[in-house]
Design brief:
By secondary structure, the protein is α+β, with helices and mostly antiparallel strands. It has 3 domains: about 80 residues; about 35 residues, no CATH class; about 55 residues, no CATH class. It is built from 7 helices and 7 strands, in the order βααββββββααααα. The strands form 3 sheets. It has a 3-stranded antiparallel β-sheet with strand order 1-4-3. The chain has a two-stranded antiparallel ribbon with strand order 2-5. A two-stranded antiparallel sheet has the order 6-7. The protein is flat and about 70 Å long. The chain starts with a strand and ends in a 23-residue tail after the last helix.
């Protein structure tokens, strides 16, 4: 696997954050460039029909809790070649062998045989714990966090058993409790989700918050300190 990251200019981040179609178009251009790079590497090895795969995660924020749409794309670090004939498949090695071999030519049955050998036997643990993390270690209960109570799990996960709520994630990562009122320390609750543009503008104007999209400023260089010489 190889990770490809695309950061976007400040001038278009706000637009991309609220325009799903434009975000998809930008992602499409990005992936076409990555795909072309892999295809060129394949053609250098004499492979005419090169295919690849990837999974992209579109993130909306940066490390400072700022609005920063960007892409993390996990790509299969190689290419899949088309069938050589009806009975054989070509598998490109990530690292060539000492004798210069770059591909394995396998029949479908041989490929299944190799893949089956990679599956571990049943009831064989591949993750082992040692020292104070071992299952019967004397001090394990003092080091490993205990399972939260059922009420705590409901607060962090809601109706889901496997996913944390965004409020719980923000509290863990940034130590920010968005469910607590900053004035009275009381608990906040979700009243409504406003998705209509006119309703959102009316609400923002009513509470004195800006409701217009800010104008995009031209890019500038970072500020430079003046020196005496």
């Amino acid at each position: 696997m190889r990770q490809w990251v695309l950061s976007l200019p400040l001038e278009i981040r706000y637009r991309l954050a609220y325009d799903g179609s434009l975000l998809s178009d930008v992602l499409g251009v990005f992936l076409r460039v990555v795909r072309r790079w892999y295809q060129e590497r394949g053609r250098e090895l004499g492979l005419a029909d090169c295919r690849r795969g990837s999974v992209t995660f579109a993130q909306r924020f940066g490390s400072a809790l700022n609005l920063n749409p960007h892409f993390h794309s996990l790509a299969l670090d190689g290419v899949f070649n088309a069938r050589i004939d009806d009975d054989r498949l070509s598998f490109r090695l990530k690292t060539p062998w000492a004798d210069g071999t770059t591909h394995l030519i396998l029949s479908p049955l041989e490929l299944i045989e190799k893949l089956a050998a990679l599956v571990p036997p049943p009831r064989v643990n591949l993750v082992r714990y040692h020292g104070v993390l071992a299952a019967h270690a004397r001090d394990r209960d003092k080091i490993v966090p205990k399972k939260p109570a059922a009420e705590k799990l409901r607060e962090e996960r809601g109706a889901s058993r496997n996913r944390l709520l965004w409020a719980a994630l923000l509290a863990r990562v940034f130590a920010i409790d968005v469910t607590k009122c900053p004035k009275c320390n009381g608990r906040l609750r979700l009243v409504a989700a406003i998705t209509d543009t006119a309703s959102a503008k009316r609400y923002l104007d009513g509470v004195g918050l800006p409701s217009e999209i800010p104008s995009l400023a031209p890019a500038r260089a970072p500020p430079q300190l003046d020196f005496d010489w």
